[in-house]
Write a structure and sequence with these properties.
The complex is a heterodimer of chains A (389) and B (304).
Chain A (H helix, E strand, L loop, with lengths): L1 H9 L4 E2 L11 E7 L6 H14 L4 E2 L2 E9 L4 H14 L4 E3 L4 H13 L3 E4 L16 E3 L4 H14 L4 E7 L2 H13 L3 E8 L7 H10 L3 E4 L4 H12 L8 E4 L5 H7 L7 E4 L8 H14 L5 H19 L7 H8 L12 E2 L5 E12 L5 E13 L10
Parallel strand pairs in A: 2-4, 2-5, 5-6, 6-7, 8-9, 8-10, 10-11, 11-12
Antiparallel strand pairs in A: 1-4, 3-4, 12-14, 13-14, 14-15
Helix pairs in contact in A: 2-11, 3-4, 5-6, 8-9, 11-12
Chain B lengths: L1 H31 L6 H19 L2 H22 L9 H23 L15 E5 L2 E4 H23 L1 H11 L1 H6 L4 H23 L9 H16 L4 H27 L4 H26 L10
Antiparallel strand pairs in B: 1-2
Helix pairs in contact in B: 1-5, 1-6, 1-8, 1-9, 1-10, 2-3, 2-4, 2-8, 2-9, 3-8, 5-6, 6-8, 9-10, 9-11, 10-11
Classes of the chains: A alpha/beta (389), B mainly alpha (304).
Chain lengths: 389, 304
C-alpha cells in the first residue's frame, strides 16, 4: 500500500499494481491504457480490474510484472501520447487495455511501428484483422464483426424476417452492422447510424415504430445502451417489437441499470458468468470477492488476456523485446480461458464458440443473464483469409 | 404525417431542454462577459442530485427540487470562489479556468457517485403514453418536459421585462459600469443571475435524467449544442435563447429522422444512410453559419 501511495504521489494518475518490491530481476512492465473516465468509464474499470485479478502476487506466468495503468478518456490523441510515453520513457514493450475501436485505431500503428506488442482485451476493428494484420497484434476478445454475426445468427434462429438495425456512426458501428448483415438471412427494412454523442433516441424510436419490423438489432455499448433501452421502453416499443443484441449492448452493469426494461431481450455472447467450467467459476468467485460486484464480459476478456500473457511470458522467459519468442509462446494459447474453448486463428484473432443468452429474473427479483444454447461453433472471422502472417 | 407530428414534438422537447441550459449561459455571457464552459457541469450536478434523491426518497417533485438546489448552490459557490475573479480577464483565461472546473466536477462526481451511470426512475403516473392520434402514442413525460420548459420561458420573459430586478439584469447587460455608478450592487446581482442560470441548468439535468442515464461527462456533450443555440439566438437575449433552442431542436431532430430517407431517393441506400447520418449531425452547425451570414449578431441581439 505504501509503495502504491508513494508512487501515486510521484507520478499522478499512474497506478502501480505490482506486488511488494522483492524483485532481484526487474519486472516486465505492461502498459494498460483504458477508458476509465466518462460514460464509458466502467468498461475500462472492468478491464483494469479483470486484468489485475489475473496477476497473482505481482507475477504473470511466474514472471514478475509491473502494470502501469493510464486513462485515455476515450480520446485517441490522449491514448497516443500515453502509448508513446510508455514506450519511449518507461521502457514498456507490451501493451493492452483499450476499450474502444477508434482509440485502438489511433494507437496501434504507433505501438507496432516501434516494435511493441499489443494484446487487445476488447476492440478489434476489421481494418486490422485482414491484410493489415500484424504478427505482434493479438486479440483475446473477438473480431468486431463476429460479435454481431452471432446476433445475426440468433435472429435467424428466432425466426425473425424483417429487421431494423441501428449502430453508432463509427468504425465499431459499421463493423456491427456489416457483421450482423453477413449472418442474418432475412431482410433489413431500416438502417440508422446514430451520432456518437447522441443521448436522446426519440426520433429513432418514432422511425422504428413507423417501420414496424419483426425485431430490432442495435449496438450501443456502455451508458448509451442503457439510455437506448430505457427510451425503447418509454416509447412503448418494449414487448411490442423484440430486440436482438450482442453482448456489449447488454452486460451485467447495463442490466442492473435498465432493470425490467431488459426482460425479453435476446442476447448472444462468447462468455457468460454462469459458464460451468472451473476456470470461470474461480474467476467469477474471485472477482466478486475482490471487487464486490458482478464481472461484466469486459472483465472476463481482460482476465483471459492476463492468462494469455501469462502463458506467453512463461514460454518466452519474460523477454518481451524478443517479439518472435513471445509470439511462439503466445500462439498455442496454453491457458484455460474462462469462456471455455479458445484458440488463435491465422490472424491472431480468436476462434471460439458463441451462445444465446436470455434475461431472467432471479428469486431475489434481480435480473441476470442465463445461457441458453450454442449458436456458433469454432467461429473465427471472415478477414482471417486476407491475413498473411 | 403522424411521424412528422411525433418527430416535431421530439424536436420541441429537445429544444426546450436546450433552452433551459441556454437561458443561464446566455445571461451570464451577456451580462458578465464570461464564457462558462462549466455550465454543463451544473447540468450534470442537477442530474446526479435528482437521480440520487429519486432513488432514496422515491419522490419526483423532491428529486427535481434537489436538482435545482444542488445546481443552484454549486453555481453560487463557484461564482463566489472562482468565476468572480475572471470577469475582467480575457476570454482565454476564462475558458482555461472553467475547463478546469469541468475536470474538477467530473472527478468529484466520480468520487461521490462512482463511475457507473446513475438511473433515475419515474413515478408511475408519468410513465405512460397518451394517444395523440390513433396509432401515435407519445410519452406523457416528454409532454411534461415541453410544458415545464415553455412555462419557464414565459416566467423568465416576464421576469426580465416586467420586474425591477429584470430591468437591472437588462441594464447590467447593456452597460455594467453605468449600472454600478448608479449605486446598484453589481456583485450581488451577478451572483444572483449566475445562481438562477445554474438552477435552470440543474432543472434541465433533473428533467433529462429519467429519459437518459445520468453519467459523468453528460454536460460536455450538450454544451457545444447549447453554445450553438445562444450564438444563433443572439448572446444575452432570453428571447433569442428560446428561438434558437427550438430552432436547433427541430432542425436536429427533423434532419436526423428524414434526411437519410430523402437522400435515398437520390442514391443507393447504404450511401444515403451514411451521408444522411453525417449531414444531419452537421445540420445545426450549417444552420448557425446561415443565421450568422444573414444576421451576424444572431436572431435577437440583446444590445449593440
Amino acid at each position: 500500500m505504501n509503495l502504491t501511495r508513494r508512487a501515486a504521489l510521484a507520478l499522478p494518475a499512474l497506478a502501480f499494481a505490482a506486488g511488494p518490491a522483492r524483485a532481484q530481476s526487474k519486472p516486465v512492465k505492461i502498459g494498460l491504457i483504458s477508458t476509465l473516465s466518462g460514460p464509458g468509464g466502467y468498461l475500462g474499470a472492468d478491464i483494469r480490474d479483470g486484468f489485475l485479478l489475473g496477476v497473482t502476487d505481482g507475477t504473470l506466468g511466474g514472471i514478475p510484472v509491473q502494470v502501469l495503468v493510464e486513462d485515455d478518456g476515450l480520446k485517441p490523441a490522449q491514448a497516443k501520447q500515453i502509448a508513446t510515453r510508455f514506450m519511449k520513457s518507461e521502457g514498456v514493450n507490451l501493451l493492452t487495455g483499450i476499450v474502444f475501436s477508434n482509440v485502438l485505431g489511433a494507437v496501434l500503428p504507433d505501438i507496432l511501428d516501434d516494435g511493441g506488442i499489443y494484446v487487445s482485451p476488447n476492440a478489434a476493428p476489421s481494418n486490422f484483422a485482414g491484410k493489415d494484420c500484424n504478427r505482434n497484434y493479438w486479440v483475446t476478445s473477438w473480431q468486431n464483426d463476429t460479435l454481431h454475426e452471432s446476433a445475426g445468427e440468433n435472429a435467424n434462429r428466432l425466426g425473425f424476417k424483417k429487421l431494423y438495425v441501428l449502430a453508432p456512426n463509427d468504425q465499431a458501428g459499421k463493423d456491427a452492422i456489416t457483421g450482423f448483415k453477413r449472418q442474418f438471412k432475412g431482410e433489413i427494412i431500416g438502417e440508422t447510424y446514430t451520432s456518437l454523442d447522441q443521448t436522446d433516441f426519440a426520433p429513432e424510436m418514432a422511425k422504428i415504430r413507423a417501420a414496424a419490423p419483426d425485431a430490432v438489432f442495435q449496438f450501443h455499448p456502455g451508458g448509451v445502451g442503457i439510455t437506448f433501452l430505457k427510451q425503447y421502453q418509454q416509447a412503448g416499443l418494449l414487448g411490442q417489437i423484440p430486440m436482438v443484441v450482442a453482448a456489449p449492448s447488454l452486460d451485467a452493469t447495463t442490466l442492473a441499470a435498465v432493470g425490467d426494461a431488459a426482460l425479453g431481450i435476446h442476447v448472444s455472447s462468447h462468455w457468460n458468468s454462469d459458464f460451468p467450467n472451473a476456470a470461470n467459476q474461480k474467476f467469477v468467485a474471485d472477482f466478486e470477492a475482490k471487487y464486490k460486484r458482478l464481472p461484466t464480459y469486459y472483465a472476463s476478456q481482460a482476465y483471459d488476456t492476463a492468462l494469455a500473457i501469462a502463458a506467453a511470458l512463461k514460454g518466452s522467459k519474460g523477454n518481451v523485446t524478443d517479439t518472435e519468442a513471445f509470439r511462439a509462446a503466445m500462439l498455442p494459447a496454453a491457458f484455460s480461458a474462462v469462456r471455455g474453448k479458445f484458440r488463435f486463428g491465422p490472424n491472431n484473432h480468436p476462434i471460439q464458440d458463441w451462445w444465446s443468452l436470455s434475461v431472467e429474473k432471479g428469486p431475489d427479483g434481480k435480473l441476470f443473464l442465463k445461457t441458453q444454447e450454442k449458436i456458433l461453433s469454432d467461429r473465427g472471422d471472415v478477414y482471417a483469409a486476407q491475413c498473411k502472417l | 404525417m403522424s411521424l412528422v407530428l411525433e418527430q416535431s414534438l421530439n424536436g420541441l422537447q429537445f429544444g426546450v431542454t436546450l433552452f433551459l441550459l441556454a437561458a443561464g449561459l446566455t445571461l451570464v455571457f451577456g451580462i458578465m462577459g464570461l464564457i462558462n464552459l462549466a455550465h454543463g457541469s451544473l447540468y450534470m450536478i442537477g442530474g446526479f442530485a435528482a437521480a440520487w434523491t429519486m432513488a432514496r426518497l422515491g419522490s419526483f417533485p423532491l428529486a427535481v427540487l434537489a436538482g435545482l438546489g444542488a445546481a443552484g448552490g454549486s453555481g453560487v459557490l463557484i461564482e463566489i470562489i472562482v468565476l468572480r475573479r475572471l470577469y475582467s480577464r480575457p476570454h482565454l483565461d476564462q475558458v482555461l479556468a472553467t475547463f478546469g472546473l469541468i475536470m474538477f466536477f467530473n472527478e468529484a462526481m466520480a468520487i461521490v457517485f462512482g463511475r457507473n451511470p446513475l438511473q433515475s426512475g419515474l413515478p408511475d403516473a408519468l410513465r405512460g403514453a397518451v394517444l395523440l392520434m390513433p396509432g401515435v402514442p407519445y410519452p406523457v413525460y416528454r409532454l411534461l418536459i415541453i410544458g415545464v420548459g415553455l412555462a419557464v420561458a414565459v416566467l423568465l420573459f416576464l421576469f426580465i421585462t416586467r420586474t425591477r430586478a429584470g430591468m437591472l439584469v437588462r441594464a447590467g447587460a447593456a452597460d455594467p459600469a453605468m449600472v454600478q455608478a448608479l449605486g446598484v450592487h453589481l456583485r450581488v446581482l451577478t451572483t444572483a443571475v449566475f445562481g438562477l442560470g445554474a438552477m435552470l441548468a440543474g432543472l434541465a439535468g433533473a428533467l433529462v435524467g429519467p429519459l437518459s442515464s445520468v453519467e459523468i461527462g453528460m454536460g460536455e456533450r450538450i454544451l457545444i449544442t447549447t453554445f450553438v443555440v445562444i450564438v444563433i439566438g443572439g448572446i444575452g437575449s432570453i428571447r433569442g435563447a428560446l428561438a434558437g433552442a427550438v430552432l436547433v431542436g427541430l432542425v436536429d431532430t427533423l434532419t436526423r429522422s428524414f434526411l437519410p430517407d430523402a437522400l435515398r431517393l437520390l442514391m443507393a441506400q447504404t450511401d444515403a444512410d451514411a451521408i444522411g447520418a453525417g449531414l444531419s449531425s452537421m445540420a445545426i452547425f450549417i444552420l448557425m453559419a446561415l443565421v450568422l451570414l444573414a444576421k451576424p449578431t444572431g436572431l435577437f441581439p440583446a444590445h449593440g
